[in-house]
Amino acid sequence: METTLRGVGVSHGVAIGEVRHMGTAVLEPPAKQIPTDEAPREQSRARQAVEAVAADLIARGNLAGGEAQAVLEAQAMMAQDPELMADVERRIAVGSTAERAVYDAFAAYRALLAGAGEYLAGRVADLDDVRNRIVARLLGVPMPGVPDSDEPYVLIARDLAPADTALLDPSLVLGFVTEEGGPTSHSAILARAMGVPAVVALPGASELAEGSVVAVDGSTGEVFVDPSAEKRAALEAAAAERKAALAAAVGPGATSDGHKVPLLANVGGPGDVPAAVEAGAEGVGLFRTEFLFLDDSKKAPSEQKQVEAYRKVLEAFPQGRVVVRVLDAGADKPLEFLTPADEPNPALGVRGLRTLLDHPEVLRTQLQALAKAAAGLPVYLEVMAPMVADRTDAKAFADACREAGLQAKFGAMVEIPSAALRARSILQEVEFLSLGTNDLAQYTFAADRQVGAVSRLQDPWQPALLDLVALAAESAKAEGKSCGVCGEAASDPLLACVLTGLGVTSLSMGAAAIPYVRATLAKYTLAQCERAAAAARATDSAEDARRAAQAVLSGE
């Protein structure tokens, strides 16, 4: 009998197939004592397993490239954490086996993270995955992960670790559904980059029967269990219609009456560039530079290494616009040489531009590298700072750019409500704004973007968030400057129309979403987008905002 479940759709498309569950977690190792003279051997086993797992994560990252590489390298750093390793060796010294010591040490650290506030609690899934991989290697059992199958399937999991999501084979994994996670979690971002339909935060997902048939709609967040023939036909027809519309929509982003809305790509490094070019991106709206800094947590990459990486991205978009975000370290992206280890709430502490202003030599080297990378190229380089709170922050960043001799536009990211509220003041110091809707939602609603339990408040359709977007866009228009959106909100085709109606001047997203947004924008006039935006803002919930905008655009 057909039943319908609803989660959060995070990656467009429809997938219909049999359920396959993620490999089960590693069993808890037995608690047995070892003789004292065996401790050195067990400590050596533990160190070797940790290094092997870290190397495997880095290798997976190198294969995946881009955003996935940054995520996996962060996990490798987690595996090699010196305090964790010291705790493992201490436990072995008093009689634990290597596998039991790893299990118990990670359990203790897990408890600390889980109780340290929602932001750090969101890292628990990544920590569990690292633990499972180390313990599996020590026990000599298969790594937990994606099931072996020769036939395509829909993957079901309580949560997906980045190491698994990064290397999913789209020819076999038709789509995936998770019980945890949110619209801006690592897995959601990687799913969009891959173009695999995905639904997250679906209650009871892990209870779906192995081998049962489900239909996953990554646009609406609906999952149909044992869909009827009629439902399957309707979903397949809708998917075919979408595909035809995508193929027909080509060229620069614009509304049906010719209002231009440049469609740009979010990239994490050179590995993401081919997909962006293939999707017809008109440039890069968010070049995350963190991936370069994750290779070595103890020191920043050399200026020359940065120049080489930046130039590869800049060369891919001759005459195009490339917006680079300088290093955003801190919170869930700690770097040993930059970020303090004892902050009680790092999401609200020294992060982003605050970190760079505390370490001006790191910022200066990055800005000088960008200047050299752009030299002689016809690209339109723009550089922006993350986590700008006020005009003082904006001025400090603009001054640093000028002192480094950077010939580019300087901008500020609007990720903190204060920046949206005082956008005109900030625009006295910089030349453009870029809205990071993921963090802006997080800080507006005090809702961690990695925690599925508060995903309702991370919905970019929340009217309060739309109000802040409108305020920033109106301020930019009044100052004669641009205001783009580079957060994941831009990847929702319907919301892209609303953002356009709010006055946003460009949209940047994962490459896979660009054709969907281009095709949808081309169906409506600017006036229709403006009416849809007004209707969405007049509501009191994300669901009502979405419904109101859809009603306007469909002519209801």
UniProtKB/TrEMBL annotation:
Q: Which class of enzymes does this protein belong to?
A: transferase
- Provide the PEP-utilising enzyme C-terminal domain boundaries: 253-524
Q: Which residues form the PEP-utilising enzyme mobile domain?
A: 151-221
One function term, GO molecular function aspect: phosphoenolpyruvate-protein phosphotransferase activity
Catalytic activity annotation: L-histidyl-[protein] + phosphoenolpyruvate = N(pros)-phospho-L-histidyl-[protein] + pyruvate
Protein's cellular compartments: Cytoplasm
User: SUPFAM superfamilies, from UniProt?
Assistant: Enzyme I of the PEP:sugar phosphotransferase system HPr-binding (sub)domain, Phosphoenolpyruvate/pyruvate domain, Phosphohistidine domain
Cofactor(s) named in the record: Mg(2+)
Q: Which UniProt keywords apply?
A: Cytoplasm, Kinase, Magnesium, Metal-binding, Phosphotransferase system, Sugar transport, Transferase, Transport
* EC number, UniProt record: 2.7.3.9
Q: Which residues form the Phosphotransferase system enzyme I N-terminal domain?
A: 6-123
**Family under the similarity heading:** Belongs to the PEP-utilizing enzyme family.
**Biological function:** General (non sugar-specific) component of the phosphoenolpyruvate-dependent sugar phosphotransferase system (sugar PTS). This major carbohydrate active-transport system catalyzes the phosphorylation of incoming sugar substrates concomitantly with their translocation across the cell membrane. Enzyme I transfers the phosphoryl group from phosphoenolpyruvate (PEP) to the phosphoryl carrier protein (HPr).
Protein's name according to its UniProt entry: Phosphoenolpyruvate-protein phosphotransferase
**The organism's lineage?**
Bacteria, Bacillati, Actinomycetota, Actinomycetes, Kitasatosporales
Which gene codes for it?
Answer: ptsP
